[in-house]
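Service request form, structural biology core

Requester: graduate student, group of Dr. S.
Request type: structure prediction, single chain
Budget code: on file
Notes: please return the result as structure tokens.

Sequence provided:
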Amino acid sequence: MPSLRLRRSAAVLSILAAGALALSACSSGTAAQSDDASAGSDTGFPATIEHVYGETVVESAPKSVATVGWGSFDAAIALGTIPVAIPTSAFGDTDGDGYLEWTHDAITAAKADLPPLHDETDGIPYEEIDGTAPDLILGTNSGLTKQEYDTLSKIAPTVAYPGAAWGTSWRDSTTMVGTALGRSAEAGKLIADTEKSISTEMAKYPAAEGKTGMVMWVDAKDLGKVQYYTPQDTRVQYLNDLGFATPQSIKDLAADEKGFVATISAEEADKLDADVAVIYVQGGDLSTLQNDPLLSRIPAVKSGAVAQIDDEALLMAISAPTVLSIPWALPTYAKMLGEAAAHAG
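Core staff response, request fulfilled:
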């Protein structure tokens, strides 16, 4: 399954292999949107946000917010601030306009202009971001290097990720963005409302209660190995949010892993023991695993307790969940998980 967490082409390749507008200046219209959206957020400043490279102080309510990486722009939009620059979505954008569907819908609902896109495929485009004249740059779920962070910080106060690169939960990302925008209370309510929606939706599927779950990725062209996601990965964390505990088998396998994804040989695939498996099969489908003598030994594959993700947008929504992508994908994902859980022993 795509890791969906590297910068663009590398991200997509990493997802599939690892098994993760350009405008020179901000339009005045977009800037005006941001000004309007930020109005009224004058409390909570100066705000201090801690992250992997230290802490960033936002002295006053930002008026022009640029974002890099994933998730920050969704959180900002959900909190009423339309960024002046967001990254092009190279994966999960099914209509090819560069915007994820839930992001596009939220901006449209706010009756705002779509913000300029910038391409992070070959690194952070500093000049393009500088051209949008941001007074704050958010990269709460990103892979910003120290050098990239330092360079962006010369443009505007920059907030990097708090722990593992590309491993920030939707809650932490929302909280950090809310603090930076002076909207901590609204961020807290947004998180609570999202949690309530998750609970309400999953309650429709009692078979899922008490089950364990894992997330894995298989390349149909190389069935000699399986990629599984470690407990620090965002899609695993989200599965936990949906009520699926991480099984001891994954905890044991990932005990010495420092990354968000790890590999196991097909000979050991039966160690991937969870009640339910969320699976992405690149170039194949569930039958690819069921027909393989080794991969068919994975307990969830054997029992049919599998949620097979084959929709790119849905894959993106559950891989890098946000307060906008969760409600967009939740009904479909919950149903798939509920149906898979019904097959679990």
